[in-house]
Amino acid sequence: MPTLPTVLVFGRSGQLATALSAHQAPTIIALGRSEADVTSEEAVRAALGRYRPQLVINASAYTAVDKAESERAAAEALNSSAPGLLAQASEEAGAAFVHVSTDYVFDGEAGAPYAETHPTSPVNFYGETKEKGERAVLAAGGRQAIIRTSWVFSGGGANFVRTMLRLASERDAIGVVADQQGRPTSAADLARACLAVGERLLAGDQAARGVFHFANAGDANWAELASAVMEEAARLGARTAAIRPITTADYPTPAKRPRDSRLATGRIEALIGAAPRPWRAALPEAVASIIRG
Ligand SMILES: NC(=O)c1ccc[n+]([C@@H]2O[C@H](COP(=O)([O-])OP(=O)(O)OC[C@H]3O[C@@H](n4cnc5c(N)ncnc54)[C@H](OP(=O)(O)O)[C@@H]3O)[C@@H](O)[C@H]2O)c1
Question: What's the pTM?
């Protein structure tokens, strides 16, 4: 990818940051919070000055959806304020900027996959903070794109797939919510999408600006995703648990979740000329990586 000489990623050990770091080319520099705290304007500007990237990708976020309800200041600092600072500082440094947001900006009541133009209406504080972050990025203007994604899983970092495998090593049966629907997404595929959109931004493509949705193909509820994880674990000879479908009412959480937050991905498919693969095809790699440690 010769048009992407230096990509600076904010975030290092998270799911997306790790997946981005796996790319050999272009040159990817990923900075964790100890190297560049995105809540510090000075640290962000110093990193941009030091590495002089052509493209910046924001892989940092406060992603603990339930904890965000009580740790409001921390969630706001990372999800609402930092994205605007990163967008502004990238623009001033002459770099294109890719920000990542979430399906949880929607209330989940549309009854069909969400297009980018659908009005946002978050049902939890995490979603509110991410919605504010999107607005701040858009207000900064310039060569920038926001990629909303959903239900991210990978072999590294904390995620639902890892949680299911851990629970399966401890119990015989797991109750998993079956009345929330979405589109599971591989962090590796999301990383490729971020780089592809970034490449279009650097090529000066106006169609690469604005909001995009990226998720793997195929719908699932959490219980279906958990069952697929168990199928893969069984194939690898790992311990499995029976998945017992339950309702949201059976599993109360501090943060409310949207019932159906499936994202429609037509806009990004048209831009990059490729359709996302099914989540079921991406899952084995993540399960194998977690099981093999
Ligand atoms: N996970 C999901 O299911 C999901 C669903 C929808 C959308 N998304 C969005 O997708 C994006 C990537 O999510 P993810 O799952 O990769 O997140 P993650 O695994 O929770 O990683 C969070 C990242 O944020 C970084 N970070 C935290 N505080 C920081 C600070 N003060 N300064 C700099 N970096 C800081 C961490 O850096 P360190 O390297 O220092 O730890 C880590 O790399 C986020 O925008 C998220 O909102 C995620």
Answer: 0.97
